[in-house]
Amino acid sequence: MALGITVAMLGGALAPSALALPAARPAAGKATPGQAAPGKGVPPARTVTLITGDKVTITPGVKGTPATVSVQRRPGATGSVETLTDDTGTYVFPDDAAAFVADGLIDRRLFNVTALVAQGYDDRRAAALPLIITRDTGASRLSAEDLPGVTVKRQLASVRAEAVTAKRSKAASLWAALVAAPHTTARRASAGSPSLPGGVDRIWLDGKVKAALADSTSQIGAPKVWDEGFTGTGVKVAVLDTGVDVDHPDLAERIVSSRSFVPGEDITDRRGHGTHVASIIAGTGDASEGKEKGVAPAADLAIGKVLSDGGTGTESGIIAGMEWAARTEHAKIISMSLGSSTAHTQTDPMSSSVNALSKETGALFVIAAGNSGPGRYTVNSPGTAAAALTVGAVDSADQIAAFSSSGPREGDDGLKPDVTAPGVNVLAARSQYVSGAGFYTTKSGTSMATPHVAGAAALLAHQHPEWTGQQLKDALMSTSTATPTLSAYRGGSGRADVLAAFRAQVVASGSVDTGLIKWSRDPQPVERRITYTNSGSSAVTLQLSVDHQESPETLFTLDADQVTVPAQGSASVGLVVDPRGVPAAGHSGQVLARDDAGAVAAHTVLSATTEPERHDLTLVAKDREGRPMAGTATLRAAQGPDFQFYNVPETGLTLHLPRDTYSLTMFKDVRGAHGAHSTGMALLGDPEVELTQARTVAFDASQAQQVRALTPRPSMPTNTRVDYWRSFTSAQPLPGTIGDWIGSRMIGPDYDSVWAQPTPGKVTHGGFAFTTRWRSPQTPLTVSHGGHDLDVLPQNGARRLPDGATRADAVFAGNGTPSEYASLPARGKAAVVRRSTAVSPSEQAQAAQAAGVKLLLVVNDRQGRQNSWYGDADYESPGPVAVASVTRDEGEELITKLSASRGGHVRLKVTAHPVPSYLYDLTSSHTGGIPENLTHRADARNLARVNLNFGQNEKTPAAEMRMDYPAYVFGGGWNFLPEPVARGPRTDWVSTGDGTNWQQKVTVPNTLTETAEPVKYPVAGTHQDQWLSPVLRPRMIREDLPVRQDGTSLAFRARAWGDSGTAHAGEGYGGGLSQRTSLYQGDTLLAESDVDSGHAWDLSPDRLPYRLVVDATNDNSSFSPYSTTTHTEWAFTSAAAENDTIALVQLDYAAELNDEGKARRTAGLAVTPSVLGAPHTGIASVRVEVSYDDGGTWHRQNTLHRDNTWNTHLAAPESASFVSLRTTAKDTTGRSITQTVIRAYGLK
Questions:
Q1: Is the peptide bond before 249 cis (omega within 30 degrees of 0)?
Q2: Active site residue 123
Q3: Which of 935, 914, 938 is nearest to 926 (CA)?
Q4: Is 621 helix (H, G, I), strand (E, B) or coil?
Q5: Which PROSITE patterns match (predicted)?
Q6: What does the DSSP assignment read for 516-575?
Q7: pLDDT reading at 1022 higher than 60
């Protein structure tokens, strides 16, 4: 399912707060009274520092609501960031990384932020990013000095690589080193191609690999082989897994060597997986009086622990284990019940190592296919390696297990899996270090099937010690028990039968696999050979035939129907694979070799994939002047698995692609709106290209139109986002639709304009939407001369000019060094300087301050707007002077005028609005295609007015953001950088229409985040909202309501710090705010948590009364002197039949307060109860009490009920300083809330 993700572009250090998902039920355990429920708490926000140095923060959503992804650019970064969300996750690509991914130089998994977090590769859990760096042929080994922040952990000689860790804190320096040096390899020497330095070939994520989690050995015939005296004696089998219980009676005498490749862990199996696997191979059965033996009970075991006690390992650790097993231990068989569910080709480092080590040592790698089910291309690496004997799972009736992964291999359609074996409900040894009782336990998975085959190979190696790994593989495949109801891509050659292999006089090539046969207008037959080997003392004549199964009769043809195989020799026959007239698909069959009695002596599985019709698709790119340019294109096919990047050089790129419908896009920097050196961002391409013949697609910026928003009052975008949604299956967005995807580009203020190429028409297959989102506050700074406004951008960290308009003379101060100010009368003036690498921003600012400069204007010497840090070196404190950048063309024109003017100065008009009194949150969306007219006119016809007031303490910093929720974002939303807000009023104008929902958040750093209910604004009317003012108390919004799940459990969340606004939920995270959240059934405590969420399990199915209780404490008087303690109880009933959200009564307060949160002593107070989740349910009663002595004495108030609000007035004594509230409200169904707020607000 596609993921629901929200994305933000951040330029500062402030990040949105963490949201929560209800805890998933743990595998075992139950909350006991007085204890937190298992799995309690809110999933924390996770930050991932990418290899580029950019920081991505992922904040989980609540109860299926979308997560938030925020991007913090590395210091000095320029350009934009693209996000792509599809079925595989959310990817964040800084634009200087996309070309490396497109050329395969850098693993795209390094940018899949959701997958990185899922693997534990976020900054909190992994201070360094694990990588595998492969080298060019002949390149010397990588050393610690070669790349900044990189530590070499392992040499991986089999793949010419090093396993390294890259410090997150040094990521930006590492990236600079990676992209700075030219690559010397000729194949990447063409102009415009990306390159890596110092002999580095590729950079891979050192990803996590999981165990691939039967009935017995008799299913594959092992006991009868034992009866012949062959039990695996003298054969060493390496088991690369989670370690082993070395004291288990079935294994203690079989282990001859061991080594752990998991840092900080010994060989002990605390997971239970490795012990189970090892005993299937070579368990002696001693703990069961010989009953539960493994397949080869006399084989020797070399145990390599490559998976941790948590069941995962790194790719580099697994490669190191493989090298140890094959080179150091000289194991004949290497069993690997593990795999990476993110890699399905054989080009990754693990698969490459299997192929290399198999060729080098002759060892046979027996590897699990994986448990990803029946879908095509689901076999996991390293089981995808051609040399591996890859194993799927069947049950006791030889029926394929539903979980067993399927082929073919991705990339070349190679045959996988190779064989199957028992893998369902397999009884084998239990490690004493895991839960359970007894010496044995039952498990299922291709993990269990794999050791059956590894043990079978050990029995054959005992019988034929001279056989290579390939001979063992051929023997097991060609003598397997056929499973004719399964295609080769599901069941391989059949279920392994070691007895048949043991008794076989003749074995055949296990498979003939042509892989993908390329489409051609004149396809030619492909010839292969099948080899038969006779280990007997007399010649054997075999009758040959082809079982075509469901493949066309003409596809597979033998050049002989009989072959005689000499004693102790081999013979071969030819096989012709003729794709002419064969439909495009994967095809399989069998060649059957029968002896004189007509019995099948050996069989060879056949597979071939005939490629569908293909045509040339030529991609060219043009800049705004129509000249050739290079760029990185994103391609998605209607029938394709996922998106692909392609680097398009200036000369163009021709792809040979299947007949299909394609979407092609390119985000590209182009000339902007302020001269040749200004920079805009353009979306180019065509969302619907029907490839039925040779086609050319032009990413043509010369045809692009400017995308802009015209606002009624002057404004300037601080952030812009351009995104597109594309589906080949649905004309309208359907959240979560598989195959849909979104491309999005976050465009910062260093771009002066946005452009888009109009589409030829509207799409006819599926749907398409193009959306532009602007956040445009009141223009913060305008600088003009001669009636012309300069393109200026206030710089980060610089001081702001006071509000208002003034005039200032401008003087030119060169590069802004102290010496250039020495004889320049600059005090009180605007100094114009050039950006220079010789003078840092802070040095320019300090020199300007020393000269008494009022405003520093920095003329950029590069493309685009300069967007640098002019604050202090701590990246937090403001710098000493106001600074704005000017784009190069306009800045140089101003310098020319200054040089030519009498006295060397020019009068400027400067207007500053450091704190915006208004802003525009705008969206403009087009469906079906991109039109010619892309000007959005924001006016009363499409805007809602929202009057806001921010009531935070004057010394308390706060920031605000508003997320938009387009219908196509898989139910999610997008947001920009939380922007600082000043205390007091602000008027927001927000787009209506387009089906967009908006959700606003206000954050006090390191203290709390307030979140409003999502709202779809109507055009008519004015809306009001208040933030960060009393009364602070527990208040839910819809996403917080408790949920009864599966009838037996209840997930709850109650944020304790909702403020005075309209339906705000406030979440504290430190800063002196704490809470305890408890759930009771009657008076029995079910679950308790020190955070705002939890889970209760094993509830009674009967309708019973429950209480959700929140006790909160505010010890941070500098944040707020109010709501020092609160106590809230929600009462409700619930039963098993209600697998749904549970409605609860909420309380809102409106008091007549000044800016300090204080009321007159006779001021009014309004209490408005509502039933969240059941808005039409009536309120039956309300009781309001006040206290003027912090709850020592309570006074019941007389109230007047009007329009769903209960109104009253205070009667505070002169001695009182605070008002405390205790309110009880009940609805007509019996639900209720009782809420006590001590020091709810102050008194004047």
A1: no
A2: no
A3: 935
A4: strand
A5: SUBTILASE, SUBTILASE_ASP, SUBTILASE_HIS, SUBTILASE_SER
A6: EE---SS---EEEEEEEEE-SSS-EEEEEEEE-TTS-TTTEEES-SEEEE-TT-EEEEEE
A7: yes
Q: What angle do CA 635, 731, 95 make, to 5 degrees?
A: 30
Separation in Å, CA 76 to CA 196, 466, 720, 950, 1223: 21, 62, 19, 32, 53
Quote the CA–CA distance of 878 and 578 in Å, as a whole number.
Answer: 73
Rounded CA-CA distance 1218/648 in Å is: 68
How deeply is 735 buried, as exposed, middle or buried, from its count of CB atoms within 10 A (0-12, 13-18, 19+)?
Answer: middle
Domains annotated for the chain, with CATH where assigned, are: 209-504 (3.40.50.200), 526-610 (2.60.40.10), 614-775+917-1001 (no CATH), 781-912 (3.50.30.30), 1030-1243 (no CATH)
Q: Give the predicted TM-score (pTM) of the model.
A: 0.79
Given the residues 447, 480, 715, 925, the one annotated as active site? 447
Whether 241 is catalytic is yes
Interstrand relation of 1125-1134 and 1104-1114 (parallel, antiparallel or unpaired) = antiparallel
User: Of the residues 183, 248, 273, 452, which is catalytic?
Assistant: 273
The stretch 613-631 carries a mean pLDDT of: 95
| CA 134 centroid distance within chain | 24
pLDDT for the residue 189: 38
Measured distance CA(1211)–CA(590) in Å, rounded: 94
Task: Measure the CA–CA gap between 1072 and 1070, rounded to whole angstroms.
Answer: 5
Residue (of 98, 432, 108, 124) closest to 251 by Cα position: 432
Active site residue 547: no
pLDDT in tens, 666-677: 999 999 999 999
| CA distance linking residue 207 with residue 131, whole number of Å | 8
Identify the pLDDT of residue 821.
96
Q: Is residue 717 within 8 Å of residue 736, measured between CB atoms?
A: no
Question: Do the beta carbons of residue 275 and residue 318 sit within 8 Å?
Answer: no
Sheet holding 540-547, edge to edge: 511-517, 600-610, 585-594, 540-547, 562-565
Residues 39 and 54: beta-carbon distance below 8 Å: no
How is residue 911 written in tokens? Answer: 């207007």
Quickly count helices (H) and strands (E) in the chain. Answer: 14, 77
Three-class SS of 306-338 = CCCCCCEEEHHHHHHHHHHHHHHCCCCEEEECE
Verify cis geometry, omega within 30 degrees of 0, for the bond prior to 612.
no
- 120, 210 in Cβ contact below 8 A? no
Q: Which helix (H) or strand (E) holds 1004?
A: strand 997-1004
- With the C-alpha atoms ordered 530, 531, 532, 538, is the resulting torsion angle positive or negative? positive
Model pLDDT for residues 842-859, shown as the tens digit of each residue = 999 999 999 999 999 999
- CA-wise closest residue to 84 among 101, 72, 62, 104: 101
Residue 1172 neighbours by CB under 8 Å, 6+ apart? 1036, 1037, 1038, 1041, 1143, 1144, 1145, 1146
pLDDT tens-digit series, residues 49-70? 999 999 988 876 655 555 677 7
Catalytic residue among 122, 241, 921, 1227: 241
Q: Which residue has the tokens 């009864």?
A: 1044
d(CA 961, CA 953): 19
Say how far residue 957 (Cα) sits from the centre of its chain: 31
Query: In the predicted model, is pLDDT for residue 16 greater than 70?
Result: no
Q: What tokens appear for 458 in the block?
A: 């050990």
pLDDT given for residue 1240 in this prediction = 98
